[in-house]
Amino acid sequence: MHARSLLAAAAAATAGLGATLLTFAPAAGAHPADSAARAATCKEASLRVAASASDEAGVLRVSVTNRGPACVVDRIPTITFGDLDGAAQPVPPGESAPYRLATGRTAYAAVRTVDDPGNPQARVVDFVTVAGDPSHAGRSFTADALGLPDGVRVWEPVTTWWKPTRAQADAALPS
Predict the structure, then answer these.
(1) For 89-137, how does the pLDDT look when each residue is reduced to its tens digit (9 = 90+)?
(2) Do the Cβ atoms of 139 and 47 come closer than 8 Å?
(3) Rounded to whole angstroms, how far apart are CA atoms 137 and 87?
């Protein structure tokens, strides 16, 4: 039974009974959280965040390196564009979950900023911000620093989940 179901059942059972203290044991067959979920979120100061333009138009490569003790970031990098609303959407679609980074390890992601570099609906921004976890402020990279002096073109951006190698990140980005 899920926690919400337990709470709903408890609320129904105690309706009209006044204040009652209820305690719940884990459901039979419940599994302990995996080690990634138990690890602490990486401290932002312990991460080195990098970004660069790819040889492919409309694609950025981002990475995060853990310089502290083993910890977790969100499996979906947080990539925002200038002062536009929203962030790059994950491919494949998915929800937040921990991604474990051992000491000294790097995770990689590929970001498609625009589906078609000639798209007339694309917006142009002067910077991109990359964070390993949504709880972090992230690091901003100017378009010039990314090697894109005319700005970063953005329209319906997508990002891969963090991957252990750059090649895996590149392969995970749909064409």
Answers:
(1) 999 999 999 999 999 999 999 999 998 878 899 999 999 999 999 999 9
(2) no
(3) 13
Question: DSSP states of 33-76 as a string?
Answer: PPHHHHSPBPPGGGEEEEEEE-SSTTEEEEEEEE-SSSEEEESS
- Dist. CA 151–CA 154, nearest whole Å: 9
- In terms of C-beta density within 10 A (0-12 exposed, 13-18 middle, 19 or more buried), how is residue 30 classed? exposed
Give the integer Cα–Cα distance in Å for 126 and 148: 9
- Whether the pTM exceeds 0.85: the reply is no
Which residues neighbour 79 within 8 Å (Cβ) at sequence distance 6 or greater? 60, 62, 87, 88, 109, 111, 128, 129, 130, 131, 157, 159
Distance CA 71, CA 40 (A): 5
* Residue tagged 């000639």 (tokens): 118
